[in-house]
Amino acid sequence: MSSNNPFFSVIIPCYNCAKYLPECLNSLITQDYTQWEAIVVNDASTDNSYDVASRFATQDNRIRLLNKEKNEGLHLARKSGTALSAGKYVLFLDSDDAFAKGTLNKIHSTIQKELPDILRFGLICREQKGMSSRAARDFEAWANVDSPVSDQEQLLSDVFISANEYGRDWHVTHKAFQGDICRKAFNVMTDSRLERAEDSYEFLVLASMSDLELTDTSIHGYIYNIGRGVTTNSALPLNQFLISAKQMKSCWMEAEHFASSTDSMLVKESAVRLKERLTFTLMNEWKDRVSENEKVEAAKSIASIIGKTEAATALMRFARDDAYASLEYLNPKTSSFLAWADLAEELTSGIDTLPVSYTQMRDAALRHIQEFKGTQTLHKQQEEQRIKIFVSTHKRTSTFPSDILQPVHVGSAKSPTRFPYCWSDDEGENISNRNPRYCELTTQYWAWKNIDADYYGFCHYRRYFDFSETPHEENAFGEVIDDYIDADAAKKYRLDDESIANVVKQYDVITTPFGNLKKIIDKHGTPRALWEAAPLLHDDDLKRCYQILCSMYPDYKQDAQAFFNGNKACFCNMFIMKREIFFDYCEWMFPILEEFDKNTDYSTYSKEALRTPGHLSERLLNIYLLHHKRIGSNWKFKELQCVHFTNPEPAEQLKPLDITDKPIVPVVFAADDNYVPQLTTTVYSAMKNADPHYFYDVTVLQRNIAWDKQERLRGFFKQFPNMNLRFTNVDRELAGYDLSTNNAHISVETYYRFLIQKVLPFYDKVLYLDSDIIINGDIAKLYNIDLQGKMLGAIRDIDFLANLNVKHGKRMGYAQTVLKMKNPYDYFQAGVLVLNTKAMREHYTIKQWLTYASNPDFIYNDQDVLNAHCEGNVLYLPWEWNVVHDCGGRVGNLFVQAPNDIYDAYMKSRNDPQIVHYAGFQKPWTDPDCDFASMYWKYARETPFYERLLKRVVKANESEIPAGVLRPKHERAVGEDNPIRKIVDPLMPIGSRRRDAVKAIGRAVRGRH
Predict the structure, then answer these.
(1) Residue 98: pLDDT band by 50, 70, 90 thresholds?
(2) What is the pLDDT of residue 1009?
(3) What is the 3-state composition of the chain as percent helix, strand, coil, each rounded to the nearest 5?
(4) Which residues form the Glycosyltransferase 2-like domain (predicted)?
(5) Among 479, 570, 746, 996, which has the minimal tally of Cβ within 10 Å of its Cβ?
(6) d(Cα 663, Cα 784) in Å, to the nearest integer?
């Protein structure tokens, strides 16, 4: 078999792999494609690898053997083998791996179609030496991810500069390289020994000389025996770890040296990112494989190799992640993250200028550590309390600042998460897994069996006791209704520890009021009738519980009959009891429910019927209390009103992102549920043009966007790894203000921008954008404009400025008398704003902004507020960042009346708009032929709400509406009292073909086609 003119050259470095080399070479010899040569480079093996390779070479002349007398490492073995190769394409096969059957034939067929410089094919990962199957599958899935056809720029970006911390793989195995390129690349590579991460350096050089990479991961051709080589998850002794560190450092230094020899900024940046990723991998090994007793010494040693700030940044990363994870558990297995943070600070002490990557990571870590310590302190204080009122919750809610009111996560045994500020009802002896049936009783059982206190109380995340002495109005269910759990509510209902303790210590038992069922809860009259009126509860269950009660506690039969036939009851399972009474109650009640529970077939019960034990316990509480009143237990009773909070969810407090490798651009939008399709289109256009070197923190201020739509947007925008999307409800912030708008096309969401300075307190500068815009440029450039200390940056409003010049118009008087502007020609448009939120906080409070906004005299609402109160403190931005479209022909009819320089600047900006603003009544989703509409639809059709936008177009145009019937409620493009209107409108009504034709002529005259 001849090796003349081989299509493939297969380079096989070998060092002490005699055990695996036969499998490797046999996988090559048995390929059905025959035009190949193999060059086995025996790297001075000390086993019989040379003999094995010689035997195969004797049997098949396509196999050649290069025997080295000195061991030089994997990189130089590949380099030596490549120099001897003659194939049109070169493949690298490690001697402890193999090719799957038919691999070369499949690769050859794919190459022949496109002749790529690099063909990446798939692999099969086989776990060895105890390597876990999961690790093998994860690696296989990562290595086999498809990728698009890539030119050099795309390839380098995807492999080295990707926002994904792991990027695409840079292995030179499971790839075929065009032979001449491969030989040229290895020829310029270093003659120094490289190991451990040599692939990263080799692939950087190979990729920088290649122009076309194809991927076909359907060819599962490379069999990778993970665990045979250095890839393992076993413990790593300190000396071996430091050797690995030095080996990796050699690789990134060679990459930097190569990059410096080129003129390519992309290659240079790739080398920088290569170093970051190798450092990331190395420090992960420190965390996962170095023993605990060697970690400190290893960290200090590694700092001398990779750099103090690099090591410290990784330590802070671990501190951040572990502290956050520990917040999920009240008693974490380890708090070593505290030591890692201290060690990082020790390494960086004395360094005058710390990199942003470290300071951002440090700040994030310290935030989580502080929260962890705060949680630990809180629970210690709660443990010491002798009065404990447990607040049952199954989700994150607002809480009152109290040591007595202690939240408990009910049903936590079946919950995938933990709430750091809550106790969990699955600790100690518990019945947490019965929560679907027992409801908040799982908290009562947990407290009974595990908690020491003098008083035990129970309420719910929505319902609390009113400890004030002021009677409050109740609804038809006997509840006081309020909205938010906040400081005002705490003051109103005396929900502070001192007030609570003063009341509790006076009584033996406290309950909610015993309401008259003839007057409340639909006036059913008796507890029995109330149960029978509940459509989802089974009448027989109440009867069986009564029978069990009478059987177990005959002396309670009289009290049960009196309760069920009477007219009064307390509800909600809310009570506070002295210790001895609470224990007696639990010892009495739980056996009754246990007997009921084990004799009930729940298989056909609805979700509400499944909660029957919880419903029964409310009735049992009443019977228990009636019994002790009847027998004269002489308990001191107190009834407190029940306050039902309709919005118990926590006030949303956004936190800084833990992003350290890219500058962050904070961007804020405002929208409602109806505007989600437009919001999606706007954000999508921004991210399609975003710079991958920045990270975009996108926050949507809203009050009613449905959760499913939020989830759909989060899923859609996952395609952008350099973006974070979050929604925050601002309803609470706007409560109490009379906010309305004076224009039909302006919604109340326009006021949300005033909240930015409070909602994002950790940003001193924020970009605000309306949701009726299209973004063609990179908004990082807009954000990075130096505001020169001004309160905000904005673009002048040509519409307003033109109206100032309308003869006999009213706008000038409005600007001077209502807005009180010194120079009305400085009026700006508020749809695109770069906000100096630090300065805004220093000048105005949220209350001031919203009070100003409540002024009914303003025409343009929030925009007028900003102009009235920021005049003289504005940096005017280039026109192309807010190009308002030609709504209703205003460009030709109105804008021409603006000051000459303003008009010329606006017209010039239309040639290359970075942002197009569809301000006014004409929108692309109501009039698809409006100005710049095609630009809008280019992005809209790629979003998941495209069909909804089309539906709105159809709805807006489903009937011919005469001009002037609906549109007069919107602002006309031509200014007030303009004489042009009196002439033009009768001859060319808005929306008529004649008017459209004249507009087209006007656009042609101005050079727009």
Answers:
(1) very high
(2) 32
(3) 45, 15, 35
(4) 9-119
(5) 996
(6) 10
* pLDDT the model gives residue 118: 96
Cα four-point dihedral sign 892, 897, 901, 906: negative
Q: Which pLDDT value is given to residue 855?
A: 74
Lowest mean pLDDT among 262-266, 416-420, 697-701: 416-420
Which DSSP helix (H) or strand (E) runs through 995?
Answer: helix 993-1005
Is the separation of the CB atoms in 255 and 204 below 8 Å? yes
| Residues in the chain, overall count | 1009
pLDDT at 649 over 70: yes
Distances in Å between the alpha carbon of 191 and those of 180, 188, 302? 19, 9, 25
pTM: 0.56
Q: State which amino acid sits at residue 242.
A: L
Among candidate residues 495, 486, 488, 501, the one with its CA nearest the CA of residue 459 = 495
Beta bridge partners of 774: 916
Can you give the pLDDT at residue 336? Answer: 85
Closest CA to 845 of 869, 820, 872, 871: 869
pLDDT of residue 737: 58
CATH class of this structure's domain 8-234:
alpha beta
Contacts of 818 (CB under 8 A, 6+ apart): 857, 858, 864
Whether the CA torsion 301, 305, 308, 313 is positive or negative: it is negative
Cβ-based neighbours of 6, under 8 Å, separated by 6 or more: 35, 36, 37, 62, 86, 87, 88
Angle, helices 612-630 vs 579-598, to 10°: value is 130
Distances (CA, A) of 950 to 657, 776, 937: 36, 22, 10
748: pLDDT strictly greater than 70: no
3-state secondary structure 838-877: HHHHHHCCHHHHHHHHCCCCCCCHHHHHHHHHHCCCEEEC
| Cα dihedral 359, 280, 154, 147 sign | negative
In angstroms, the CA 663 to CA 320 distance is 19
The domain limits of the chain are: 8-234, 456-647, 664-940
**pLDDT tens track for 434-471:** 999 999 999 999 999 999 999 999 999 999 999 999 99
Range 525-539 average pLDDT:
90
Task: Tally Cβ neighbours within 10 Å of residue 888.
Answer: 23
Q: In angstroms, rounded to a whole number, what is the distance separating the alpha carbons of residues 262 and 510?
A: 80
Q: Is the domain 664-940 a CATH 3.30.160.340 member?
A: no
Structure-block tokens of residue 781: 């450039």
Give the closest residue to 955 by CA, choosing from 991, 926, 923, 988.
926
Per DSSP, helices labelled H in 307-349 are: 308-326, 337-348
pLDDT at 738: 53
User: Within 556-643, where are the H helices?
Assistant: 557-565, 579-598, 612-630
Same fold, 8-234 and 664-940: yes
At residue 46, φ and ψ (nearest 5 deg) are -100, -5
- Name which of 294, 313, 206, 213 is nearest 255 in CA terms: 206
Cα distances (Å, whole numbers) of residue 494 to 13, 67, 345, 468, 513: 78, 87, 44, 5, 18
Q: Note the pLDDT of residue 236.
A: 83
Displacement of CA 290 from its chain's centroid (Å): 32
Q: What is the mean pLDDT of the chain?
A: 88
**What whole-number distance in Å separates Cα of residue 193 and Cα of residue 695?**
37
pLDDT of residue 965: 38
Element spanning 256, H or E: helix 238-260
pLDDT confidence tier of residue 166, bands split at 50, 70 and 90: low
CA gyration radius, the chain: 37
| 816, 821, 823, 828: CA torsion to nearest 10 | -110
From the list 148, 311, 131, the residue with the least C-alpha distance to 232 is 131
